[in-house]
Amino acid sequence: YGRGTERSAYMERQIPVRVADLRFVLDQLARPGAMGPQLAARLDTDHVAAAGHSFGGATAVLAASEDPRIKAIADIDGMLYGPVRGETLQGPLLLLESDHDGTGFRARYVEATEAVLSRVPAGGWRYAIGGANHFSFTDADHFFSPPGRWAVAQIMGGERGAAATQRAAADILDAFLRGPLKGEPGDVAEAAARYDGVRGGPSRR
Length: 205
What we know:
Layout: H1 2-30, H2 36-40, E1 48-53, H3 55-66, E2 70-76, E3 93-98, H4 106-117, E4 124-129, H5 148-156, H6 162-182, H7 188-193, E5 198-202
Parallel strand pairs: 1-2, 2-3, 3-4
Antiparallel strand pairs: 4-5
Helix pairs in contact: 1-3
């Protein structure tokens, strides 16, 4: 318990730094001519989403709760840290989760995310991908060389496997972001239903 408390305290100290980094990037992208004429013509800073995995997901949610430029938020298996307030989010919130607790903070995570989801004006979704664990959303197994990579992938990828987990996550994310970023219809529930073992749906407010 002591180590868990120390870890949480460390994360609470670090997350304002990560949020400031994200907001700094948005500030730089909004500067006239910051990216050069070719790239600037392809940037739409009026339609911005923040998405991340683990601590990156926590950073995305807290940054969005403080910065109205962020119009959609996706937290992929990330415990929330900092003074997140759902009612300040300008756009919808997507929570994508593994169904195996690899962090030891599952009860706290559910309590924190439920409190935020219940207050998001634009609503949100929560989906758990069966057979996935915390590292299934990453390419962490590629930090290892063969043949160790295969063995590590069996542990890190969960029962579903990293490739299958990431395929489901990408499709759900695509459907979720189409509306707030492109103004196109995106059916999040239909995207999730294409994959066996994916449970969840829209939040109840």
